[in-house]
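Hey, can you fold this one?
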Amino acid sequence: MARECFITVYLFVFRILFYIFNFFPQKKKTTFVASFGDNILCTIKEIEKQTDDQVVILKTSQCKVNFEGVPDRMILSFETLNLVDWVKSVYHLATSQHIFIDNYFGFLAVTNFRPNVSCIQLWHAAGAVKQFGLKDPSVERRSQRANERFQKVYQRFDYVIVGSEKMSSIFMESFGITHEQILRSGIPRTDFFFDEAAKKHVERSLRTEFPKINDKKVILYAPTYRDDQLNITNIELNIDQMYEELKDDYILLLRLHPAMKVELNNEYPDFIIDVSKYQNLNHLLIITDLLITDYSSIPFEFSLLNKPMIFFAYDLNEYANSRGFWEDYQDFIPGPIVDDTDSLIRCIKEGLFDLSQIKSFADQWNQYSRGYSSKQLIKSIYAQDGAYKVVDQV
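Sure. Predicted structure:
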């Protein structure tokens, strides 16, 4: 109840400010609202190449991407605790012609954009394992007011960016949008995986930063976030056993979700490297020989590298019941499923992987992500607007 009251007050104030700022002149400007930021950074770089738009970035506290380094970019804190920046943020949202977002943002429920404004959902994941939006199982537990607000937010999307037809079907169900609102340009941040020079540069840099990985294979363990794991002191993976069985041939990179506050005592610094705070996950994937995950969206992009994956789904039934999957999990994922460390180690040692399965998975989910997604996105959005001069046509 208290949360719903806070949201109501927040949206009331937002609505009033937005209404006032709507009377201000509209600018040749693109505003981004970033909670993840990876896709947004790639899109911004392309906008700066192809257009002469002013770029404004509204950065939430969750976003760890560094947008600094380009003088003409305006970066504001999109948090109510920073009141001045927050009010400026509402102003820029009301006076821009293009709005990009990369997550669900409740303020959209009260933003009646001008007719010529485009609101583009640049979703943070290239694919989906878990159900979300209108298909999220929590819909049944929300109040009617909350569900109406969610639907108003989804109705603000003029375009939703996808990398595949599979994802377009999911978005149409999740957001209640039409076929015409799907923009099949591919996912901007996947362009990196097609840039051989960039990948080699990143690999050299990481091998210098983490010299322990140079003589061994790299395992990346990246579990998804669970609601009951905000503060934990241990993980389900048996680190002692992993060390004893694999220390001679492997290094284990540990990448926990940024929302998790974990206090783990690393007793094996020659075997384990905690990369939870390393900013760019895609960079870590380049040096990874084997990915261990569960219900994360990481495999959709990692599959582009055609490397093996193991799915450590120790709580599969419980997670499926609480979150819901789009497809039967066992038929869906491109690798072996294990529920204990013994089975995990056996898969690693025996090489129980099918790379042809991974390639098929990559082709399905990265259908439109072929190395030029950022260019295609900007061309699709900006070239159709006669008020904009596209500097570098693609």
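The chain has 14 helices and 15 strands. Let me know if you want another pass with a different chain boundary.
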